[in-house]
Amino acid sequence: MAQELPSTPHLLHSLNKPGSRNGSKLAFLGVNPKRWCSMHQKHFFSCRVHARARSDVLIAGNIPKRWYNLFADLPMKPPPALHPKTHKPLVPEDLSALFPDELIMQEFSNDRFIDIPDEVIDIYGLWRPTPLIRAKRLEKLLGTPARIYYKYEGTSPAGSHKPNTAVPQAWYNAQQGIRKVVTETGAGQWGSALAFACSLFGLDCEVWQVRASYDQKPYRKLMMQTWGAKVHASPSNITNAGKKILHDDPSSPGSLGIAISEAVEVAATNADTKYCLGSALNHVLLHQTIIGEECLKQMEEIGETPDVIIGCAGGGSNFGGLTFPFIREKLNGRLNPVLRAVEPAACPSLTKGVYAYDYADTIGMTPLMKMHTLGHDFVPDPIHAGGLRYHGMAPLISHVYELGFMEAIAIPQVECFQAALQFARTEGLIPAPEPTHAIAAVIREALQCKETGEEKVILMAMCGHGHFDLAAYEKYLQGDMVDLSYSDEKVKLSMANIPVLVP
After folding, report:
1. 137: how many CB neighbours lie within 10 A of its CB?
2. How high is the pLDDT of residue 502?
3. 23 vs 413, which has greater pLDDT?
4. Distance of CA 219 to CAs 158, 189, 213, 469, Å?
5. Which residues of 94-104 are buried (b: 16+ CB within 10 A; e: fewer)?
6. How big is the CA angle at 249 (ends 244 and 253), to the nearest 5 degrees?
7. 313 vs 294, 332, 434, CA distance in Å?
8. Membrane spanning segments where (predicted)?
9. If you average pLDDT over residues 76-91, what whole number do you get?
10. What is residue 3's predicted lDDT score, i.e. its pLDDT?
């Protein structure tokens, strides 16, 4: 029979007793008693493990108390969002049907820092701070002199970075007396995060999940339902937007743009309901900067400075969340890393799209935003990285890209899953399909360092785990996965529908 370790409180007490046998019991199991006691005493008193036996894992002890707003430090401000009907610059009152007052203020804010409410920090404490991990085994496999670090956000209850904004969005809605929120989701990471957050504050939650992901990832739907959310496949017959899409294409795989149209329609036509968005908008990226603020402190603590920072990008919340605080340091002359966004070859808004005013949704209900876009009615092929199947990029990230502060590349999904297996079989973590794009780019960079002999420090955004995405891995392992690409003709048709604005 396997021997069990004594409980932490009992062991801490009994190790102080003369002649205690618990120390020898730990030694018999191959555990250093003093080391075990030190590590678990910290766990016992803080309810979170902040000390790890592995030298390649760092968890800083404090959660940042403020979000960072890059908008305040940009030398040239991004173009304003426009009202979808008048094409006049958006004012806060234009968003009152969709968002609570505090989030609207954050969307328009020019303050450099915004305080995080204590109640939100308390919930963040369930999983934050998240670990910064050195990928030593991957480095060894690649034979690279580069040092690879990844900021791992998969420790949250929902398994990704999305609760970083879902929790404050739900909290601000609850504070204003809102009882129901609606949203869209692609792969289901955002829908899961919002369902989790709503369960904490007693909010009703209704989610439109992109049909392709709804079919590919049934357990994400069940996860949302477990937290109390109502989930619909999008396009649906519930909304006018969904009915129109199904009328035109009954077999539509859906897209994030379509799902946004459906959720926005419900929020705009029901006074007791507000809308929550998981990416792209300023206040969403603001909340995600807790990732980069933590990471800056962690890298400083170990005396490392990143030469290259890499992250996947669909709407841009994870990439922006990690990189925006580093851009601040870059603007101040303290750091100068290369910032590289990686998008799917099947939906390359940064690398192949145009920088223009376009709708955030397919039907054209949302404000017009200046962003890199493939056209608001572009429906990407159903790749497994459902969270990256979005026709546009966050306006702030698009603007930063235009200013030349970052670069972007696109990688096909087969190469991404090849990289994911290398990562999983060395580092142990099974990545979600979205960050496999970042992993593939990191491997490219690390192998380039192998050729040149450069000892670069590579930092990667690892936005979540892939425990609910194993069907995608099964398809790859069986040799059935193929690279999907966008159709030039389809993009041409979609871009022809981008609004032409008259000055």
Report:
1. 16
2. 55
3. 413
4. 12, 11, 10, 9
5. bbeebbbebbb
6. 105
7. 20, 25, 8
8. none
9. 94
10. 40
The HSE-up count of residue 407 (CA atoms within 13 Å, CB side) is 8
What average pLDDT score do residues 372-382 get? 79
Mean pLDDT of 167-191: 95
SS3 content of the chain, % helix, strand, coil (to 5): 45, 15, 40
* DSSP symbol at 469: -
CA distance 105 to 101: 6
Round to whole Å and give the CA distance between 56 and 327. 25
Contact 390, 349 (CB under 8 A): yes
Helices 413-427 and 470-477: crossing angle, nearest 10°?
100
Q: Is 110 exposed, middle or buried (0-12, 13-18, 19+ CB in 10 A)?
A: exposed
Read off the DSSP letter of residue 484.
-
Taking the CA of residue 343 as centre, how many other CA atoms within 13 Å lie in the half-sphere pointing to its CB?
32
Q: pLDDT tens digits, residue range 97-116?
A: 999 999 999 999 999 999 99
Rounded Cα–Cα distance for residues 484 and 500 (Å): 30
**Residues recorded for the chain:** 503
**What is the per-residue pLDDT across 279-305, written as a single tens digit (0 to 9) for each?**
999 999 999 999 999 999 999 999 999
Quote the Cα angle for 422-428-430, to 5°. 75
Give the count of beta carbons closer than 10 Å to the beta carbon of residue 6: 15
Residues near 437 by beta carbon (within 8 Å), at least 6 away in sequence: 312, 342, 343, 344, 385, 388, 411, 416
Rounded CA-CA distance 39/199 in Å is 32
Instruction: Return the C-alpha torsion angle 400, 405, 411, 416, nearest 10.
Output: -100
pLDDT at position 347: 85
Task: Tell me the three state secondary structure of residue 186.
Answer: coil
Q: Specify whether the CB–CB gap between 365 and 266 falls below 8 A.
A: no
* pLDDT, tens digit, 9 for 90 and up, residues 181-192: 999 998 789 999
CA 303 remoteness from chain centre: 26
pTM of the model: 0.85
What is residue 59's predicted lDDT score, i.e. its pLDDT? Answer: 63
- Contact in structure between 288 and 317 (CB atoms under 8 Å): yes
Cα–Cα distance, 427 to 370 (Å, whole number)? 39
439/311 Cα distance (integer angstroms): 8
Q: Is 269 in contact with 301 (CB distance < 8 Å)?
A: no
pLDDT (tens digit per residue) in 30-71: 444 444 444 444 333 333 333 343 457 766 568 999 999 999
In 3D space, the residue among 31, 141, 46, 3 whose CA is nearest the CA of residue 443 turns out to be 141
Check residue 224 and give its pLDDT. 97
| Residue carrying the six token digits 């619909």 | 232
User: Is the CB of residue 382 less than 8 Å from the CB of residue 215?
Assistant: no
- Whether 449 contacts 144, CB under 8 Å: yes
pLDDT of residue 382: 62
